[in-house]
Amino acid sequence: MAEFLGVRNVKTQVLLIEDDISITELVRYNLEKADFTIETAKDGEEGLILATDQTPDVILLDWMLPNLSGLEICRRLRRNNKTANVPIIMLTARADEPDRVRGLETGADDYVTKPFSPKELIARIHAVLRRVRPALAAECLTFEDITLDNVAHRVTRGENPIHLGPTEYRLLRHFIENPGRVFSREQLLDSVWGHDIYVEARTVDVHIRRLRKAMNEYGDPDYIRTVRSAGYALDKKR
Q1: Co-location of 160 and 97 in the same domain
Q2: 107 and 36 together in one domain
Q3: Is the distance from CB of 74 to CB of 88 less than 8 angstroms?
Q4: CB of 177 within 8 A of CB of 136?
Q5: Helices vs. strands in the chain: H and E counts, helices first
Q6: Is the pTM for the entire model greater than 0.85?
Q7: Is residue 128 located within the same domain as residue 207?
Q8: Peptide bond before residue 161 is cis, with ω within 30 degrees of 0
Q9: Residue 31: φ, ψ to 5°
Q10: With b meaning 16 or more CB within 10 Å and e meaning fewer, what string describes 90-100?
Q11: Region 47-63 average pLDDT
């Protein structure tokens, strides 16, 4: 059976906005070693563009940047609907309590003082993800009688194994991480297929049908709800 061949963890996407090349390379090396995907920007304007275009899972933001300060970038990110809920960790040499308070009040979720150890930074990233999106840290995700094992890449419903292809697996994981939320086809394409891959929006419908068929193979209730003119959601039947 090849239903899980080619399935891989969707890596956490980190955007680093930092003008110090040595720090950028240090962070890049250690995050990639820890199995993160990282994009970098050397100034605030570039960082804002990347954050809006790619909507990363976490933003690492230097306080002292040329032209546009980290605090101002943080304010703009929080005012933008696409990045309003993305966790932001400030990186700065400012260690005084008033500065830390300013950063947090501006909208940062955490604060790491330079110089910092890569291990501490990675731990802070994991911690902020657990707070903001608990499902990212979970080895097993559940919804009603559905269990998705992120380590073994297996899905079961009740006592029955569910055989999914790679795309259907990623779709189900995304739905379980966001139960009850309605996603448009375009949002699902961005989250499940990725920003850099061109796929017709109607392709989503094909994979939703495949996912439904696999999940309901044993006559169980259909938890995937179609919302006309809006998209799809994973919901308990009312």
Answers
A1: no
A2: yes
A3: yes
A4: yes
A5: 8, 11
A6: no
A7: no
A8: no
A9: -70, -40
A10: bbbebeeeebb
A11: 89
- State the sign of the Cα–Cα–Cα–Cα dihedral 30, 31, 33, 39: negative
Residue 87's domain comprises 13-134
Q: Which residue has the tokens 């050397």?
A: 42
The verdict on 17 and 130 lying in the same domain is yes
Beta carbons of 129 and 87 less than 8 angstroms apart: yes
Task: Give the count of alpha carbons within 13 A of 39, CB side only.
Answer: 20
Q: Which of 76, 110, 134 is the last residue of a domain?
A: 134
Query: Does 148 lie in the same domain as 113?
Result: no
Tell me 3's DSSP state: T
pLDDT digits (tens, 9 = 90+) for 6-48: 333 457 889 999 999 999 999 999 999 888 889 999 998 999 9
Q: Which two tokens stand for residue 46?
A: 């570039």
CB atoms under 10 Å from CB of 78, counted, come to: 15
Alpha-carbon 8 to chain mean position: 15
> What's the number of domains the chain is made of?
2
Q: Hunting for tokens 């309605």 — which residue is that?
A: 182
pLDDT category of residue 138 using cuts at 50, 70 and 90: low
Query: Residue 179 maps to which CATH number?
Result: 1.10.10.10
Output the pLDDT for position 10: 55
